[in-house]
Each structure stands twice: as structure tokens, then as C-alpha cells.
Specification:
Elements: H1 7-27, E1 30-33, E2 44-50, E3 53-66, E4 72-76, H2 77-84, E5 90-96, E6 101-106, H3 107-117, E7 126-130, E8 133-134, H4 137-162, H5 168-172, H6 276-283, H7 297-302
């Protein structure tokens, strides 16, 4: 079997370099990328900084690239449906190697517009997307306004829900739990199934989630500070930007979990099981050095902090 990189693989790697250079050198934003070998449909997350300080604003993205003169790329409908449900602002970036230019597309706006003017196109198995807007100083301001507005709406929804009484039994009876912005502070979910739940922006501060099934939970920006997640199953969970300060995650199953941008000060991971992907994602989190790990785990994470394109050969992501 050949071990040489194909031309497209090299172009893909170069596109990551170009995107990182644009945001990190030009604007001091932080670009966290998921290794190209692991296709979760999302290539990474960008944290927005103002005057050198992180302002809690972020966006998810998918990066496409080409070595030809085209400005079009074919996307399968499954990915579009997945991005449409993103709890964060979602952008598509497209690097044209022949021009050495990056183009961008606000995916939520694109999808909403297409669903109004050409809904038949969304029924196709593959949708051809044309990239027109170039990434430059002007478009950066457009991206910031979009992200700020999106998150402002999310925060308003959170505040509206926080004053409502959340009845656990009602949520647990749902086929798929959707509880964005609700407060479950101090509630007892021990041994409950929250599998596949959508919990972005929810509050689980000091809640009991020990031995709960949280596989493939979407909990970006969720507050788990002081919660008990001992023995919980978080395989494949997305907890990017979530808060785990003083959280007990001992003996949890964390294979495939994504922690980029999470806050981990004093979190207790002792006895937890990881794969290389979850360890790498923790290396992209905040204050992971202040968390508690079994011997040798922190050193492994620290060795991954500067690696942008890591090769994960045996990532354990089976969700039985």
C-alpha cells in the first residue's frame, strides 16, 4: 500500500495552513482543527479574540479546497442537514490554491435562502455550492456581526428558559431530548439516558449525572461546573466551549468526545478512558493543566498541544 500523500491530501493540508495563517496571524483568533483522518462533518472551531482577549464568541466551520480554478464544491445532503442543526454559527470556507484565496459562506443564511427560493434543490443527494465572497478585512466584520447576533439570540433564549420550571420527567419521556438553555442546576440524572440530547447553553451546575448515558450529546457552551459525571458515558459527545470547573468526571468513558475550547480547571478525570482524539481535543481546551489526570495522561496531552494534523490510527468511536 502506498504511503505517499495524494495531491488532494496535500492541498487539504495547505488549506488548513492558509486558514490558520489568515485568522491567527492576521487577527490573533484561534483556529482549532480536527485531524483530517477523522471525518465528523465539522473541521473545527474558531475562537474570536478582541484586543488579545477571548470574548466568548466562536464559530464552527467546514473547510473545502481545490487546486483548480473552480469556485464550486459538491456537498452531500446529509452534511447539510447536520450543519443546519448546529447550535453554533456555522461557516463554510473554500481555499482556491490556484488563486491562493479563501472564500466563505454563512451556512445558516445560505440554507434559509435556499429553502425559500429553491426548496427542490435541498432534495438532491448532492448540492453544488458556489463560493463568491472572498475572505478579507471587510468580510471579517461581516462574520463578527453574524456570530455576535447569532449568540445574542441564543443568550436571549437561555434567559427566557432559565426562569421556567424544568420538569425532568417531561424531558426524559421525549424520544430525543432537546433542552437548549434550560437550567437543571442540582438535579439528579443518575443512571438516566440522555443519549443524543441537544443541551447547548443549558445549566447543569452541581447536577448529578453519574453513570448516565450521554453518548453523542451536543452540549456546546453548557455549564457542568461542580457536577458529578463519575462513570458517565460521553463517547462521541460534543462539549466544545462547555464549563467543567471542579467537575467530577472520574471513570467516565470519553472516547471520541470533543473538548475544544472547554474550561477544565480543577476537573477530575482520574480513572477515565480516552482515545487519542479525545486527548487531542483536551489539548485544545482551556486550563487543562489544572485538571486532575492519572499518571502520564497530562504529559500525553501536553505533547499534543502544538500538533495541528495528528494521525489517529485506532480511534475508538463505536457507539454500542
Amino acid at each position: 500500500m502506498s504511503t505517499k500523500k495524494t495531491l488532494q491530501q496535500q492541498i487539504s493540508r495547505d488549506s488548513v495552513t492558509a486558514l490558520k495563517y489568515f485568522f491567527e496571524v492576521g487577527y490573533e483568533w484561534i483556529v482549532s482543527t480536527i485531524p483530517q483522518e477523522d471525518d465528523f462533518g465539522t473541521d473545527g472551531q474558531i475562537l474570536i479574540f478582541e484586543n488579545g482577549s477571548y470574548n466568548q464568541q466562536k464559530l464552527d466551520f467546514q473547510l473545502k479546497s481545490t487546486g483548480t480554478a473552480t469556485h464550486e464544491v459538491s456537498i452531500d445532503r446529509e452534511h447539510l442537514d447536520m450543519w443546519r442543526m448546529s447550535g453554533s454559527p456555522f461557516f463554510l470556507f473554500f481555499w482556491n490554491k490556484s488563486e491562493n484565496k479563501i472564500y466563505f459562506l454563512n451556512f445558516h443564511d445560505y440554507y434559509d435562502t435556499l429553502s425559500r427560493i429553491n426548496p427542490e434543490k435541498l432534495q438532491q443527494e448532492n448540492i453544488l455550492i458556489e463560493f463568491i465572497e472572498e475572505l478579507d478585512n471587510r468580510s471579517i466584520e461581516d462574520i463578527k456581526r453574524t456570530v455576535y447576533k447569532y449568540n445574542e439570540i441564543a443568550v436571549q433564549a437561555i434567559h427566557e428558559h432559565q426562569n421556567k420550571t424544568a420538569h425532568i420527567e417531561n424531558f426524559l419521556r421525549q424520544g430525543r431530548i432537546i433542552a437548549m438553555g434550560y437550567s437543571f442546576a442540582g438535579y439528579n440524572f443518575k443512571k438516566q439516558s440522555l443519549r443524543g440530547a441537544v443541551l447547548m447553553g443549558a445549566n447543569f451546575e452541581k447536577a448529578i449525572l453519574s453513570n448516565s448515558d450521554m453518548r453523542r450529546v451536543s452540549a456546546m457552551g453548557t455549564n457542568f461546573n461542580g457536577a458529578n459525571l463519575r462513570g458517565s458515558d460521553l463517547r462521541g459527545a460534543s462539549v466544545m466551549g462547555a464549563y467543567f470547573e471542579n467537575t467530577g468526571i472520574q471513570e467516565a468513558k470519553l472516547e471520541g468526545a470533543m473538548f475544544m475550547g472547554a474550561f477544565l480547571s480543577e476537573a477530575d478525570f482520574r480513572g477515565a478512558s480516552f482515545d487519542e482524539l479525545s486527548l487531542w481535543s483536551i489539548s485544545q481546551a482551556f486550563d487543562f493543566e489544572k485538571a486532575k489526570f492519572d499518571d502520564g495522561v497530562l504529559e500525553k496531552i501536553q505533547s499534543l498541544t502544538k500538533i495541528n494534523n495528528y494521525s489517529f490510527k485506532d480511534t475508538a468511536l463505536t457507539q454500542n
